[in-house]
Amino acid sequence: xxxxxxxxxxxxxxxxxxxxxxxxxxxxxxxxxxxxxxxxxxxxxxxxxxxxxxxxxxxxxxxxxxxxxxxxxxxxxxxxxxxxxxxxxxxxxxxxxxxxxxxxxxxxxxxxxxxxxxxxxxxxxxxxxxxxxxxxxxxxxxxxxxxxxxxxxxxxxxxxxxxxxxxxxxxxxxxxxxxxxxxxxxxxxxxxxxxxxxxxxxxxxxxxxxxxxxxxxxxxxxxxxxxxxxxxxxxxxxxxxxxxxxxxxxxxx
Length: 253
Ligand code: PGA
What we know:
Blueprint: E1 4-9, H1 16-29, E2 37-42, H2 48-54, E3 61-65, H3 82-87, E4 92-95, H4 98-103, H5 108-120, E5 124-129, H6 133-138, H7 141-153, H8 158-161, E6 165-168, H9 182-200, H10 202-207, E7 209-213, H11 218-225, E8 232-235, H12 242-250
Parallel strand pairs: 1-2, 1-8, 2-3, 3-4, 4-5, 5-6, 6-7, 7-8
This protein binds 2-phosphoglycolic acid (PGA).
């Protein structure tokens, strides 16, 4: 069975003290995950080492960066490379979150470069895709998301895509309290998996975890995650509260 993942995206929130308290509370509140489940904490860069240390010795729990730069190293003041991330023990990197695409003009091409660097340096990308409200209202979300995936991922080999992680996050559902219905999520997740199957075959497509993101909370996680093509969630707001995120972790298949 492909991995079922509850990924917390703290974005630019919490102090280190608040973050450490939250992770400690969560580790106490959630029991052992099984082999096919994982929890990921995507925390601000300066907290990666601290959170990694708290999680030392725990199974199926990982740390993620929320971004990386698309160059190996050099004179890029203020940026963080995958080599730096790897050297401090980072496991995953969120690539192409809609806030990065929107506020920092990250294109599908730049994201393809980031994906390549992550793979080269042995970090696991969580590749985000998803449409804006206008696209959904025009009914063209499938082809929009298909282009995002093809332009950033379809140069990869089947081996590189096996076990990959994609997060589908409709922009109109992020931080708005408006969640896609479980049927809407299932429909587009199945479509994404069919695009992957056309490009790489069923076996590769079936190995890829497709997370849903956009106002996931304790009250809706179980219903959304129960859909056959939804393999967990990427969670912003509700991941900042221990009781909420603990319930979301417990909702994994
Ligand atoms: P949200 O954010 O859960 O607060 O909607 C999700 C995300 O942006 O990853």
